[in-house]
Structure formats: C-alpha cells, structure tokens
Write a structure and sequence with these properties.
Blueprint (H helix, E strand, L loop, with lengths): L1 H18 L21 H24 L7 H9 L5 H35 L11 H16 L4 H23 L8 H25 L1 H11 L8 H20 L1 H7 L3 H6 L4 H23 L5 H13 L3 H26 L7 H18 L7
Length: 370
C-alpha cells in the first residue's frame, strides 16, 4: 500500500509540473516509483527517434511487399527516375498512395485515442470502443445508400457528422443517473451505441448489393485501392486535427488530475474539451471516411506511450503520431502476407492483435496511469 501511494504521489507531482510548469513541485524522497519507463528528456527523445526509425522501416516494407515483392532499388527508381515499367507503375500508382494513407490514418486514430483517453480519464477508451468509428461509418453508409455519393469529397462530411453525433450521444448517456460520468458508463454506452450502429450499417449494405460491393472491404478497415485523390481529401483534416491536439496537450495534463485540480491550475476545462471533441471529430471522421473503421490502434499505442514516458500528453502525442502509423503499416504488410496472393484487411489484423491486448488491460488491477 505504501509503495502504491508513493507511486500515485509521484505521478501527481509530475502531472502538476507538466500542466503548470511554473508551479513548484516538492520532491518526495520516499516516492521512488517512476511514472514511466524513462523520465529524462534525453531518454524520451531517444525513444521517440527509435519509434520514428520503426516507422521508416514500416514505410519501406509497405512499398516493397505485396502480391509480388519489388526490390528496393526499383522502388527508389519509381520515385526519382520513373521510366514507366510495370513494377514502377505499381509502386507509384498503388503502393505510394496506400502507404501515405496508412501514415495519415495511423496518426489520426492514434492521436484521437490518446485524446479520448485523456478527456474521459478512461484508460480503456478509443474511437472504436466508444463507437465514434461506428458512428462515422454509419453516416457514410447512409450517404452512399440514400444519396448515392461515391466520392470521398462528398461523404467525408457525413463521417464528420457521425463522429460528432456519436461522441455527444455517448458522453450524454454516460452522464445519466447518479454519480455522473464514469469511465465504465462511458465505455458501456460507447460499446452499446457502436454495436447498434454497426448492425444497422451492415443491414443497409445488405439491402443494396451495389453499396455492399462498394463498401465491403472499406467496412472491414482497409487502405487497399487508395489513390492520391483520397489522400488529398483527408490530409488537410488530419493536419488540422493534429494541430488542435498539440495546442491542448498542456491543458489535458491538468484535466487528467480531475476537474477540481484543473480549475486550481487555471485550465479552461470546457474550452479544452470542446477543442478535444473538435480534434477527435476531424481525426476520426477523416480516417473513417478514407479507410473505414479501424479499431484497437487508438487503444494500444497511447498505453505503450504512457508506459514509456508517463502521463505527460506533450510526450504521449508525439509517440502516438509515430507509433500508431508504424503499427498500422506493419499490420497492413502482415495482411498482405498471411493469405497471399490475396489480402487481409488491416482492420481485421489490428483486431486480432488488439483483442488480446484489451483483455490483458481489463484484467490488470492497475492500468497505465491517466
């Protein structure tokens, strides 16, 4: 018990320092348990560079591995010395857009997961579990089925609307009853709404065979078949969402300590949460419109980041920016290999990896601190 109290005290001291750098933090000589695997800025920066290196390797694998493997020199020539050969055409027209989209979608789901966990103070939250992805997917299915939209420029706005509606609905349902909002209530509300919307989305697709054929791969979560039009359609939204997330990193550190402590530190709680919802909407809406609902990445990566650097959002977000796309691209490459020459959608691969991780997190007595 003493060790646990010391660990909690250490975490609170570090969080207060991160939320309000001018506030004095007393040293607790008895509190020796670190809040993360690494605590120094140098070690955290080194870890971030390692994650960036893994991301670079994942990008190279994504460009070289597929139905047929393409040598790295050919990939290089396709980027800088294009001569129109078949292999170079495959790299330029298919694998480059797919890799870039994987980067954007990975960043979006990883950062949105970190934001949702920080805002709700729920270590089991992510866009998939809270139904945000399901809401965006449902509204996209409505746009395609009822209005015949086929261009991402048309239905991306429906994805944003679905993300907003479900985010508000989940938070409202989780706030009902005595005791107000709790992580368990929000999780249950998100799972329930997500299950209903996923079922209705599947029903809409089955009622319209053409829509089903068009959205079948997308609904499982896939970056296959993407072109640069899709990349350009979502790049601006993802960039804006990332910028908002970076802007609220420090206030999120204060909110993670509880509303009372956040007010004492001078944080604008309502404003921060509004900006957080805006960032999650932009990120989840764009990612879901482009690649379909991809789950568990936004759950796993923030936990790994907190295990490494502790609860400071100013470090968690950069780790999510690099770590989430690395995981998604590696999962995409695995999906190309396991049923070769066919492909397994990346959303299915991340589900196979993420489900055991979720079970482990639920069974742990103490999840990584928020």
């Amino acid at each position: 018990m003493t060790q646990e109290r010391n660990s909690t005290a250490t975490a609170e001291h570090h969080a207060i320092a991160a939320a309000s750098p001018g506030a004095p933090v007393e040293k607790d000589s008895a509190a020796t348990a670190p809040v993360g695997t690494v605590t120094s800025t140098t070690a955290r920066t080194t870890g971030l560079l390692v994650v960036l290196g893994i991301l670079v390797v994942a990008c190279v694998l994504s460009l070289t591995i597929g139905t047929r493997d393409i040598p790295l020199p050919t990939v290089w020539d396709s980027l800088w010395h294009f001569d129109g050969s078949a292999d170079q055409l495959v790299v330029r027209s298919l694998r480059v857009p797919r890799t870039i989209l994987g980067l954007l979608v990975g960043m979006a789901v990883g950062v949105s997961g970190a934001l949702i966990q920080a805002m709700t103070r729920n270590p089991l939250a992510d866009p998939g579990i809270l139904g945000v992805n399901a809401g965006a997917a449902f509204f996209v299915a409505l746009a395609v089925t009822l209005f015949g939209f086929t261009s991402i420029w048309s239905y991306v706005w429906f994805a944003f609307l679905g993300a907003v509606v479900v985010t508000v609905a989940v938070y409202a349902l989780g706030s009902l009853g005595r005791g107000g909002t709790t992580p368990i209530r929000i999780t249950l509300a998100g799972v329930a709404i997500g299950a209903v919307l996923s079922g209705v989305t599947t029903g809409l697709m089955l009622l319209d065979p053409a829509t089903f054929d068009q959205l079948r791969s997308w609904n499982a979560g896939s970056t296959a078949g993407a072109d640069m039009d899709v990349v350009w359609a979502v790049a601006g939204f993802v960039g804006a969402g990332l910028a908002v997330a970076v802007a609220i990193a420090r206030p999120l550190n204060a909110i993670a300590l509880g509303d009372d402590m956040a007010r004492a530190l001078g944080a604008d709680i309502a404003g921060t949460r509004r900006l957080g919802v805006l960032a999650v909407t932009l990120l989840c809406g764009a990612a879901t419109a482009a690649a379909g609902p991809i789950g568990f990445v936004g759950l796993m990566i923030p936990h790994v980041a907190r295990w490494i650097v502790g609860p400071d959002q100013r470090w968690i977000l950069p780790y999510a920016v690099f770590g989430a796309p690395a995981l998604l691209l590696i999962a995409d490459v695995v999906g190309r290999l396991v049923v070769r020459p066919a492909e397994l959608q990346v959303g299915i691969v991340t589900a196979f990896v993420g489900a055991p991780v979720l079970i482990v997190l639920v069974r742990r007595k103490k999840v990584s601190g928020l």
